[in-house]
Amino acid sequence: MRIKRGTHRIKRRKNILARTKGMMWGRKSKVTVAKIAAIKAGAFAYRDRKLKKRNNRGLQQVRINAAARELGISYSRFIGSLKKRKIELDRKVLAELCRDYPKVFEQIVKV
Question: What is the pLDDT of residues 60-79, one digit of tens each?
């Protein structure tokens, strides 16, 4: 008995075209081009999730450094003194403190 693959083929094609919805030119409508675009988009998305974390950490360090220098201490000395005193605040929280609650950050620097 012969088995036809029409429904599976259509389902696979629809899935690929759904992933490339909103892209320009042939990438949104032509399956062979859309398949390549979808693979590349997934690869870039995976890579850029890691880059986002890296960029955010750099931004947090810049914010902490700027706030600490206004209070007369460098970033490296500030982080070093936090570790010596076993104050376990991560850089994300410290950056939020110096942006949103500068008085609290100033108290941490004084400690």
Answer: 999 999 999 999 999 999 99
